[in-house]
Each structure stands twice: as C-alpha cells, then as structure tokens.
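Support reply, case 0932

Customer input (verbatim):
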Amino acid sequence: MQGTDGDFYGTTAGGGNGIIYGVGTVFKITAGGTLTTLHRFNTTDGSRPQGGLIQATDGNFYGTTNSGGDNGAGTIFQITPTGALTTLHNFCAQPNCTDGADPQAGLVQGTDGNFYGTTPIGVCCGTVFSLSVGLEPFVETNPTSGKVGARVIILGNNLTSATSVTFDGTTAPLLKVTASAIETTVPIGATTGTVIVTTPNGTLNSNVAFRVLP
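Our regenerated output:
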C-alpha cells in the first residue's frame, strides 16, 4: 500500500533473518526503488505476516501475523513509519481460543475507529473480531476526488442528526441523510482539504483529504 508520505509499505512472509526460511519482515520502498527493512520478525513478536498492511487514521500501520507471539497462534501489530513495532494482541489468549487463531488476512479500519478482521480457527471454525485502540470515529468519502457539482457519498456512523457538511471549510448541501451515509455534492468554491461532518455530538473528519479537481 502507498502511505501518506508517498512511499510504499508491505510485508514478506519469510526471510529477514539471514535465511530464506526466516519468519518475515515489514518493509518500505520508494517509487525510485530504494528498499528499507523496517522490522524483522523473530517469532516472539509474531511470524509470517499475512494480508499486508493498512495505514490508519493515526498515521501508523497495522497488520496481522499468522503464527508466533505469546501463544504461537499469531498476533495483531502496530508499526510506525520509522519501524517501531508494538504487539497489540496475541491470539489464542482466551479459553479454547475463543478469540481465534492463525489469522490469514489483514485488517480493515471501520469508521467507528476500530479495526476488524477474521481468523480461520477458533473453538471450531473461526472468528470475526474487532479491536479498539482508542482511535476516534471518522467519515469516508466516496469518491475521494471530484469536480465542483460532483455527487459524493459520505460514509460513517450515527450520521442521522448531522447538521452540516463542509469541504475544506466550504458548506455543502445535505441532499440525503441516513444513519450511515450522507449524499452531497462538491460545493462551489470548495478547495482540496478535509471534509468535516458536524453532529450534535461533535465533528467527524474525513480520513483522507478530498481532492477538488479542476
């Protein structure tokens, strides 16, 4: 995936420890081809990362490993753009592995700020899980760019009572509002920047800047 800094970030499921059968790495590579290994897994902090990475709204990257960790059943980890890794969860930490084990896919971040994923193992046949690390709710625009007048859907949670939408400070019309989506258009005078939804409970910022096209 491409980070907000323009570089590309990814994982390998092997190598990294001087042998081809190592337990994997996290790396970044520039558009010009300069590769930097950010982290080499060592089994105790996880092994064989799966499903790649996502960059969350705090700017850090998050992913899963298929094995390793405290219980040998995989982990959820956070890694900063400079390579500082933190293990957030060791799978099979609950009785009978009710939290799951051996994840084979990555994570997604919901607009409530939490992370979601799956495991193929857990008690019997796998789990769907969520993980909260305290990140704030946000909204997501679909698409993330458009010309003035273009139709935009803003996705989120608890949007029914929204009172306004702005594109980098320019007010946009509330054409249709539901609990999970707002239909609007790019307003005249809008410039590239954050989309903000105002509700009685506060404001929700877009996870990426909306780009206004000429």
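We compared this against your earlier run and they match. Two observations from our side: The radius of gyration is 20 Å. The mean pLDDT is 96. Please reopen the case if you see a mismatch on your end.
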